[in-house]
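Submission checklist for the structure archive. All mandatory fields must be present; incomplete records are returned to the submitter.

[x] Identifier: Tyrosine--tRNA ligase
[x] Organism: Hydrogenophaga pseudoflava
[x] Residue count: 408
[x] Sequence attached
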Amino acid sequence: MPVGGGLQPTDGVREALAVTLRGCDELIPQDDWVKKLAKSEQTGVPLRIKLGLDPTAPDIHIGHTVVLNKMRQLQDLGHQVIFLIGDFTSLIGDPSGRNSTRPPLTPEQIKANAETYYKQASLVLDPAKTEIRYNSEWSLPLGSMGMIQLAAKYTVARMMERNDFHQRFTAGTPISVHEFLYPLMQGYDSVALKADLELGGTDQKFNLLMGRHLQQEYGQEPQCILTMPLLEGLDGVEKMSKSKNNYIGITEEPNTMFAKVLSISDTLMWRWYTLLSFKSMAEIEALKKEVEGGSNPKDAKVMLAKEITARFHSAAAAEAAEQDFINRSKGGVPDQIPEVTLSGAPMGVAALLNAAGLVASNGEGNRLIDGGGVRIDSSVVSDKGLKLGAGVYVVQVGKRKFARVTLT
């Protein structure tokens, strides 16, 4: 692949390109990115890598960290990453993928959510090497005259090529004029930050390309764009989503996080390694060959589960979660379980489960007993009419809920 005047890229540029392409959906245009990498290597000036996030209601799971992981990989190559909080654009509302106008957030909601987003992002990015910016910094001073001048740099016809606008227009669904401002303002962020590369999900492609267009309009070298795919959830089919209950929240307990990673299929594991692990592709390929050669895929999955758990908690928490999982798989009881004291003996099992906070209702407790999902002192309970007298019991619901109940 030639760089500039027909020169071949150096090993450093080739390595940086491989890191960039790892797991990505599209890199546009790749040749320009290679030239930027080569120029950065020759001059020693880091490239400016931008990720913009509107602080909508925090709903963070590991699927959201795929783009942040890519930022961290580029950060580790020595480039300058910019975590841009769209406090101004949140006042408009991103129409991407919407079939109706998105309600804008209040300044108070934006501030609270922005703080949460940055705190979560800092679990993946190196905070000491991350530039935090808010787009109100340059969007507010733009003023009405500047906004009109900006709007003159793009046509309505081009705007209507965007899928969601086109579909809504065809269906007769209202499109507010201010929604056209969103992609313009996101593109203007790239002008203000002099971005070399902007990252986003596949649904952000139109907005990312707007940045390239506006940078050219303002006489800048246009940014390249990198889109990352949506991560499949625990089921390996649907994208990770809280509504589909196939997610791992990044604030979940270490033991739960570890166990959920171990529950994914052997096939999905390699996809997750590519998008979520900080191991090099060479290390991952070596692991793959070991599994293909007969080693237990569970060992590779345990490594991934420990890496992800350690990232959002600590190495010690990941080790403890592994030990907890081993204990449970042997039918053992974890070392640390909640202690609950209840009065009212004798008490029915379902009522005890409910009072101990292990189920949401007596009805749910009875359903779990019917399904063989309740154990008391390691023995499966099959009788819904069983009443427990005064004493101390280790109660287990499903694989992961335990309590030591003192009943008086």
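[x] Structure attached
Curator remark: DSSP finds 16 helices and 13 strands in the chain. The chain has a mean pLDDT of 87.
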